[in-house]
Design a protein that fits this description.
573 residues, alpha+beta, 11-stranded mixed β-sheet, 16 strands, 20% strand, elongated
């Protein structure tokens, strides 16, 4: 009787087992979802912890690969043009593999598809998508793909790319949802890191301005302050080269007074026109001028070669007020480095404007000190004239009158000699008074401006503008007599090039180290003909010998002529 009931007992038992299995699977799913939510929360906290932008980007890529169990992950940062990738951060590919594959992708194929259409993209096989055109040689095989955009304040910052889900599986909707959530958190983290970096950068610029202001107001030489401007600008902006050019009074030209960094010597002392150079255009317009590649920019003169290995550049005017720019700062980065962004340019512009204010304040302070010195000189001159000279003159008159009453011949002669000495003393004092009241030589009469004027006049005869480089304190260390000889020799040398050299390039280098002044004039012409007239060269040699110097003339193997005229300077008193 019991056997017919056994099938009835098995049926409820089977249904119960199915229910238990289904319940267990749902419990596992809930547990898995809970664990994944915990992992996602942990990842969000991890990426939000880093305030350094590069570290934050690396943390985002690591978290993305872990959350969706992908073998390879990358974060591509979209460049300023909005069409290509400017940076690429990867996980899963070794440095050796990266070196074998070649340059990082620029944003073509599937990567470009996500740039053009910033929406989540999930693929079973990358090769099946129309935008795919394969991988470069030695690239690891990749099939499954999941990509999501990262937005920062409604602007697409970049994209997360995940490939090869482990176990040969495909990325599913849950992976896409998790990655989209992480991308949202990543946008917030990136925004925070950017704000933090901006605040740190502004702090560094403010500190640099404070250093420059302190240097100028403490009485430092202008060259020291300009060098500080160049050094700080190069360091903070991550540039390889920084140069500062100041206007040459009354010449319409700029003189590169300071240069630091790569090939600084080739830049220092160059004289540049205002209408055909980056620095000149920035000075004239009192606005920044940028270049994506200085080696291919027509606004950069090819001679002398001075930008090898450099690429992006920006010229920033120092001061943009009603009085115009006071000078220009040029910054250059190495080839392959990012161009100067609008935000960087604005920070540089603010830095240069503050530097200009500091220079203005220092000049006003120096002017006040100079006025005080001149007023003191006027007082001394007035006292010498009104008191000392009058008393000496009266004493001389008294002695001259008393001399008539002295009968002893020798005593009378001594009194007359004393009167003559007093007259000579009065002349010396008058000369000192004139010296105190005489005006100092103006900048337009300095050697720099005179040399530039000679070169400018010669350019009309030559048919081209010679390049000019000047270094050292030419206006203060070279006495007027020596400066007259330098100008005469320079004029004669350029005239000889125009008459006899048949050249299309000439270079002028004028330098001083306070011990000697050196003038070097070279051209690419036909050289000095044998048996030709030598009167001009003889005059230049005589001028050098007269001052204890020498004249050297050589003909390089590649043609042309090099004239070097150098004379020692008298020691500074």
């Amino acid at each position: 009787m019991g056997s017919p009931d056994k099938p009835r007992d098995l049926l409820p038992q089977l249904k119960l087992d199915e229910l238990l299995d289904e319940l267990q699977s749902r419990i596992d799913a809930v547990r898995g979802t809970r664990d994944r939510v915990h992992s996602l929360l942990g990842a969000v906290l991890a990426v939000g912890r880093d305030l350094n932008l590069e570290q934050a980007l690396h943390s985002i890529v690591e978290a993305a690969a872990t959350l969706v169990d992908a073998e390879y992950a990358a974060l591509g940062v979209i460049g300023p043009d909005g069409r290509t990738l400017s940076a690429f951060h990867t996980i899963g590919v070794s440095d050796e593999q990266i070196a074998e594959i070649g340059p990082f992708p620029e944003g073509h194929g599937i990567l470009g598809e996500l740039i053009r259409n910033p929406e989540p993209l999930r693929l079973e096989k990358i090769s099946q998508h129309p935008a795919s055109y394969g991988f470069p040689a030695r690239h690891p095989p990749m099939n499954s793909f999941l990509g999501v955009p990262i937005r920062v304040r409604d602007q697409v910052f970049g994209n997360l790319y995940l490939t090869e889900k482990r176990g040969g599986l495909e990325f599913d909707e849950e992976d896409e949802s998790v990655l989209s959530t992480l991308a949202f958190a990543a946008g917030v983290a990136i925004d925070n890191a950017r704000l933090y970096e901006d605040s740190r950068l502004r702090e560094r610029w403010l500190r640099a301005n404070a250093d420059i202001t302190h240097s100028l107001m403490s009485g430092s030489d202008r060259a020291v302050a300009l060098n500080l401007i160049a050094e700080r600008a190069r360091e903070i902006s991550g540039s390889a080269l920084a140069a500062v050019a100041m206007p040459l009074a009354g010449s319409g030209l700029l003189n590169v007074e300071i240069a630091v960094g790569v090939d600084a010597e080739a830049h220092r002392g160059l004289v540049l026109p205002l209408d055909r150079t980056l620095m000149g255009l920035a000075f004239s317009a009192a606005a920044p001028v940028t270049s994506d590649d200085v080696t291919r920019d027509e606004r950069i003169s090819p001679e002398p070669a001075r930008f090898q290995g450099l690429g992006p550049a920006v010229a920033i005017p120092i001061g943009t007020g009603d009085d115009g720019a006071r000078g220009v700062v040029l910054l250059c980065r190495e080839t392959g480095r990012p161009v100067y962004s609008g935000k960087e340019t604005e920070m540089l512009r603010g830095f240069a404007a503050q530097a200009a204010i500091a220079m203005e304040l220092a000049e006003r302070r120096q002017d006040a000190q100079q006025i005080a010195v001149l007023q003191d000189r006027d007082r001394i001159a007035r006292d010498l004239h009104d008191l000392a000279i009058q008393r000496l003159f009266a004493t001389g008159m008294t002695l001259q009158s008393a001399g008539r009453f002295i009968e002893h011949p020798e005593a009378s002669e001594r009194v007359l000699r004393a009167v003559d000495d007093l007259d000579e003393t009065i002349k010396i004092i008058r000369s000192a008074i004139f010296g105190l009241r005489a005006r100092e030589t103006t900048a337009a009469e300095g050697l720099r401006a005179r040399a530039v004027q000679v070169v400018g006049e010669a350019a009309q005869v030559l048919g081209f503008a010679p390049s000019v480089r000047m270094e050292g304190l030419l206006d203060t260390d070279v006495p007027r007599e020596f400066a007259d000889h330098v100008v005469a020799v320079l004029s004669e040398a350029l005239t000889n090039i125009a008459r006899h050299a048949h050249a299309n390039r000439a270079d002028v280098v004028l330098t001083t180290d306070s011990r000697e002044v050196r003038l070097k004039v070279s051209d690419n012409g036909v050289g000095i003909a044998a048996g030709g007239r030598r009167s001009g060269l003889r005059n230049m040699a005589e001028r050098a010998e007269q001052l204890g110097g020498t004249l050297d003339i050589s003909g390089p193997a590649n043609g042309g002529t090099v004239l070097e005229w150098h004379v020692p300077l008298p020691p500074l008193s």
